[in-house]
Amino acid sequence: MSDALELDRVSREFASPDGRVYRAIEEISLAVPAGAFVAIVGPSGCGKSTLLNVAAGLLPPSSGAVRVGGEALAGLNRQATYLFQQDALLPWKTVRDNVALGLVLGGARRSDAQAKADEWIARVGLTGFASHYPAQLSGGMRKRVAMAQNWILDRGIVLMDEPFSALDVHTRQRMESELLALWEARPAGAVREPQRKTVVFVTHDLEEAIALADQVVVLSAGPAARVVAQHRVALDRPRDLLELRTQPAFVDLYRGVWAVLREEVIKSQRGAA
Amino acid sequence: MTDGAGARAASPPDARAPGLRRLRILASQVALGVVLLALWQTLVSLKILDAFFVSRPSDILQRVARWIVSGTLWGHLTVTLEESLLGLLAGAALGISLGFALARSAFLALVLDPYIKMLNAVPRVVLAPLFLLWFGLGIWSKVALAVTLVFFVMFFNTFQGVRDADRVLIDNVRMLGATERQLVRHVLVPSALTWIFSSLQTSLGFAMVGAVVGEYLGATRGLGYVISQAEGTFDTTGVFAGMTVLGIVVVIVSAVVSRLERWLLRYRDVT
Questions:
Q1: Do A58 and B169 touch (CB under 8 A)?
Q2: In this predicted model, what pLDDT tens digit does every residue of A10-67 receive, in sequence order?
Q3: Which residues of B touch A90 (CB under 8 A)?
Q4: What percent of chain A has pLDDT over 90?
Q5: What whole-number distance in Å separates Cα of residue A96 and Cα of residue A116?
Q6: May I ask the CATH class of domain B56-264?
Q7: Is the pLDDT of residue A268 over 70?
Q8: Total of domains in chain A
Q9: Is A80 on the interface with B (CB under 8 A)?
């Protein structure tokens, strides 16, 4: 299977206010196979979001190349959707209009887009809230709307930047389960096994990373973050996230990856102090 | 002016009986007015204040009533409102377009910045005689004066609103496939509109100030003209009557505008 997304020695620098150059990520190479769920973990401030923004085409790399489906990326990544850490719903649009937005932007008829939006609103469990405004919803509900807004476009790659970090623990676990269910779901009436979406999921929470992903990539402490380790997560799917965290295989994996991540977290704390 | 992201309406402390609370506020407002007017009336009656300088509430109300009955008020009021509205519309159109253009072009904004600051610093009263010269004694000199006031409020709010548009919203909509035009339509315009609507009260007040000051300095009709005529004959009752009418009109118009504003920005304070 080919790689859906490939970063080839990607570096990104920023000019800091005092005129010095700050290198956020350095020579990061990463190949994400089509249909894989890859989690990127690292200490705070290690450039995880920068990495994702480069993959999305929102930031051009200072050096190195991004390839999407084998082709060099120029401009925005049109194969990908992006779930932001912050609230990114348009506050002046209702849930229905927010979910339908991508289709409307793509030139779909408003009525068609809204009908499809209603299907997605039902799929993320928000039936009855279609005419609400984002300000009327809880944080968890807003994330569901954002997920529907992204997944309705049916693009091959899903980029997620700590999407659940602002939620409380229980809401967060539910959202993680729902994300996996969405990702693993087969659309009704599909003739052949559909290709799963390729997911790149950035988080600072190692537990979340292992619970969700096929592969965990550990970044070093910033500045000039690099890839320090990649671990395969050989846990069966579908996963029961409520049970998973106490299983020996999960605990062993966690211990293994944490040994690496721990060093980087300590480094980043020393750097910040 | 809006305080942006934090602008979620707090629920009233007395949420059990909001109607009762509003009634209490209204009653207190009326009571305060009555007390102040009674005090004024008494002080004049006791000759502590001289009616020649400050008139008296009963005379002022009589004068207003006479204007209403005789019908002389409506012509003047209509002219003032017409000038204000035209000034508001023209000022808004200019301010919003320029605000948008400058917010989208950093170069243009930097080039024009000192000129805009200079123009905004010019006291409008100074401009009034010039406008009289250029546009004549009719309504257009007053509209022009109102425009110079409204323009800057609208301009600064639009500029700020577009500049302030949430980076994440912009990135999200771009990732969802928006073209530049769609970005403007779905994010930048609505984002600026919250600022523009929030400044509607201020703008409308300024438009009326512009119209009335213009009339005051040279006109043949309008509330400002009525006040200036009264002043010319030391008719303090007429001056206060004119101010009273102006005040009442502003309160009514503000109430309408804040209704409109609440409806337009209804997505913000939803509970």
A1: no
A2: 999 998 888 888 888 889 999 999 999 999 998 887 788 899 999 999 999 999 999 9
A3: 169, 173, 186-187, 190
A4: 63
A5: 9
A6: mainly alpha
A7: yes
A8: 2
A9: yes
